[in-house]
Structure formats: structure tokens, C-alpha cells
Fold this protein.
Amino acid sequence: MTFDTIHQTLGIAAPLVAIVGVIIALFQLHAQNRLRQMDTVMRMYVTFGQESFLHHFDRVMNCNYDEYETFKKKASENDNVSLMVVSVFFENMGLLYKRKLASLELLDDLLSGPIIAAWRKVKPIWVGRRAEYSQPQWAEWFELLNDDMVERLARLEQKK
């Protein structure tokens, strides 16, 4: 092989190596982004297992307020705090989902049951508060997450 042949071969190979390097970097960036998203969700999910959160979650799940008016009349300050703690947690998860920082599949694997059960309990309260204070955006990402989760689970059930 002559020097010119080697020079021509390297001249062709160099751009190809650069292109392959860019493609590999893009795959690595994509994988890194997914890992970062998973890390964000898992950090927030840790809250779900903490004793203080479980206390609030249990309180919300055992409340018997089928209407907002009943909640307004009978709810204690602790009931309100528990409502907010639980709702903010799921609102944040819903926001991550809405912003495509958490997949519905991942949230299904972690929280589908608690999402749906909690929204059933708090929906009448949030619907009432939205109307009373003219704030239709309150708990909107929690509701979106619930609605999309219910739809996903129905689709998965149909496939069985």
C-alpha cells in the first residue's frame, strides 16, 4: 500500500468515524436523559413510603366526604393538611407526566392504584374548591394523571 492510498483511505474514514461518534453520543444522551427522568421520579416516590406521608395518605383514604359542602362543614385542620399533602404529591407526579419527564408506564408500575384511589376520594373536594374560588387549574395535573391512568388500565384490560 502506498502512502497516497493510506492517505485517501484515512480521508474517507475520518468523517465516517466522526459520524459514528456523533450517533453514539446521541444514544448516550438519550439514555442519560431517561436515567435522569427515572431518578427524578424515584426521588419523589421515596416520599410515598415515608411514615409522615403514609399518615396523610391513610387519613385521606379513610375520609368520608362525598361532597365538598360536607368537607367544608366537617373537615378538621388536619383533614385539610392531609388533603394538601397528598394532592400536592400526586399533582407533582402529574406535572412530571404532563411535561414528559415521567412516563405513564413508569407511574403505572409505581402508583396506579394509589393515584386512582386517592383521586376518587379527593375529586369532589377539588371540584368544589375550583368552583368556589374560580380556580379551575387546582389539582389539574393530578386529575390528568388519574384520567390517563384509568384510560391506560382500561386499554391494558381489553388486551387480555
